[in-house]
From TrEMBL:
Entry keywords, A to Z: ANK repeat
InterPro entries xref list: Ankyrin_rpt, Ankyrin_rpt-contain_sf
Each ANK repeat, start to end: 71-103
Pfam families: Ank_2
Name of the protein in question: Caskin-2
PROSITE patterns: ANK_REP_REGION, ANK_REPEAT
Protein's organism: Cladocopium goreaui
Amino acid sequence: MEEKGHTISDFNLDELEVGKQRSLEKMQWRNEKREEKRYILQTFLESHKFGKDVNEPRIRKGCFLFSKPKEVLYPLHKAAELGDAEIVRLLLAAGADREQRTSKGRTAEMIALEEDLLGSHKEVLMLLASQIKVMPLREAIKLMEEQKCL
């Protein structure tokens, strides 16, 4: 019995091109989403007078000689205070320290609890209470490979 060999002509080149195009479109879409998230996070940091590092406190400017010093907040504390789950998620994915304390010793979770009115900060509290690290899928796969989980 003779086996028939396959040549490149056996494949539908149009289907390969369509698949390649779809793959490029998906990659472009992922890149656009990534840039959109970066922009949202950067806008949040700038609008609340934070630097570019998600683990740096608010930039304090001006003369504080005669004013009562305010609590030093970090980006995650502000997002928790506002009840903004999307920003909390982005900050955690960017490496924000959920255990970071303010100058008065409060964590982001404590602040969210204080601000919560009838469940208004429920999603933020769930994100902050979980011990799950938010990270991109590819980073998670790499970590699992390093830990010999895969």
